[in-house]
Structures are given as C-alpha cells and as structure tokens.
C-alpha cells in the first residue's frame, strides 16, 4: 500500500552551501491508518544566516545538542520510506530535494510538487505561494482543529506547521483534479502535472512586470533573448521563453 510523505525543511539559507536545520513531515497511508508526524531540529556544518532566521525564526540556541540531520529519527524514517511505490509531496520540491541530497538522500519516491501543480490548476491565482493559498482558500479556518489532532503548533515558515497547511492544500488540489479530470486517478495526475512544465502567462518581476509574456515576445523579443542568456531562470520560465522565441 502506497504511503504519502508530505514534507518541508527549514535551512541555514537558500544558497548552494546551505543545509537543513529542521526536517518535518507527515506520513499518510490508508484512510483509517494513524498519521505519522515527524519533526526534528538538527545541527548543520555552518551558521544560520540572519536572513534565514528572519524567515523561520530558528536561532542557534535552539539547535544546541541536536544531532546532525542524518542522525535524526526523522531522517531514518524517511530513508525507510524511500521507494518507488510511495509519494513525496512538497511545495517547491526542487529546493527541499536538493537540500536532502546534500545529506545523502537520493529520492526514489514519486514526486508531487504542489507549487507546479497549483500553477497548472489555478493559473489565474495572484500568487502560488503556500501562505497565499492558506488565506485565499481559507485553509487557516481548518488548521487549528487539524493541528490539535496531531499535537502540532501552526507557525508560518516552520517546517511541520507548513506541512500541516500543505496537507490541507493537497485536498484542494485533489478536489480540483476530480473536477477537471474526473476519469483520472488524482495522485497520478498530480505526478504527471509535476513533470509537465508550465507556460507562464505574465511577468511578476522586472521592467515588464504585469505584462503578458506573449505580448512582450512580440514587442521586445530582445529582452526575452537577454533573459535566456543572462538570468538564472527556473524550468518553467526557461520553457516559456523557449516556446515563445522558437
């Protein structure tokens, strides 16, 4: 029977050298099975950056005496679950999977990136951040009752708090799949959407912020060509520019 691992990490920062300092995940199985909750702080081989503390509020004193990530019970359980029959569910999966890879975890699970799925299923949303959907979809109204079931404290940008919000968000994604693709298995469709690049419609940054990218391609194709050569673009923007400039 497949298990669903809903995961988030907090880290020393977001750069190449940064590492995990909090690993949180929930494990769901059959509807009547108890839900596993794993949440541990861990030490890292470098200091937490002030900019990261600003976001998640984890300070060095909170990590005193904690093991390194690979020695936590949470990491050990994650290794046990790491097989192709199970699903890994993350919002912005590449970031967390890259961080886990630095700890020697090479994912074998089927990946559902709820960020990319949200872009496919809710293309007109003003933003696709988890915290945006937390309020836009009213998830906050249900989270305290859900948290009480699992003895979880809800805090924004806390690994296990975000995992619980993500659990509620996944139910909204499944609902959207059932409405748009009623004949398909929802989880398999989410895996498929995760593997499908998104055609981004509108710029949310830069001198053309707010404009349709297709319009900019007609009016200022040189700018898009410059972006391709000069900017570190994510997969979706790379795909979008390639389609429009080909």
In short:
This protein is α/β, with parallel strands linked by helices. 45% of the residues lie in helices and 13% in strands. Helix 6 (140-150) packs across helix 7.
SS content category: alpha/beta
DSSP strand tally: 5
**Principal-axis shape:** globular
Global mean pLDDT: 95
- Quaternary state of this entry equals single chain
Secondary-structure element order, N to C: EEEHHEHEHHHHHHHH
Helix content: 40-55%
Number of helices: 11
CA radius of gyration is 19 Å
Strand order of the largest sheet: 3-2-1-4-5
Q: Strand percentage, roughly? A: 5-15%
Main β-sheet, in a few words?
5 strands, mixed
Give start-end ranges of low-pLDDT stretches: none
Distance between the termini: 44 Å
């Amino acid at each position: 029977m497949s298990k669903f691992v809903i995961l988030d990490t907090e880290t020393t920062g977001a750069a190449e050298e940064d590492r995990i300092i909090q690993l949180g995940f929930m494990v769901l199985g059959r509807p009547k099975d108890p839900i596993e909750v794993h949440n541990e702080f861990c030490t890292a081989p470098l200091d937490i950056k002030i900019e990261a503390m600003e976001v998640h509020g984890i300070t060095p004193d909170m990590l005193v005496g904690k093991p390194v990530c690979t020695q936590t019970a949470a990491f050990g359980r994650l290794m046990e679950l790491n097989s192709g029959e199970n699903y890994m569910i993350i919002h912005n999966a590449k970031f967390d999977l890259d961080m886990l890879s630095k700890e020697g975890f090479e994912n074998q699970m089927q990946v559902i990136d709820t960020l990319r799925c949200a872009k496919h299923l809710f293309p007109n949303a003003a933003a696709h951040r988890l915290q945006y959907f937390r309020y836009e979809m009213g998830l906050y109204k249900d989270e305290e009752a859900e948290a009480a079931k699992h003895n979880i404290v809800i805090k924004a940008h806390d690994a296990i708090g975000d995992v619980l919000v993500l659990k509620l968000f996944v139910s909204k994604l499944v609902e959207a799949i059932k409405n748009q693709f009623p004949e398909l298995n929802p989880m398999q469709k989410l895996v498929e959407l995760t593997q499908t690049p998104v055609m981004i419609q509108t710029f949310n940054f830069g001198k053309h912020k707010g404009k349709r990218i297709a319009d900019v391609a007609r009016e200022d194709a040189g700018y898009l060509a410059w972006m391709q050569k000069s900017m570190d673009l994510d997969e979706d923007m790379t795909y979008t520019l390639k389609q429009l400039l080909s």
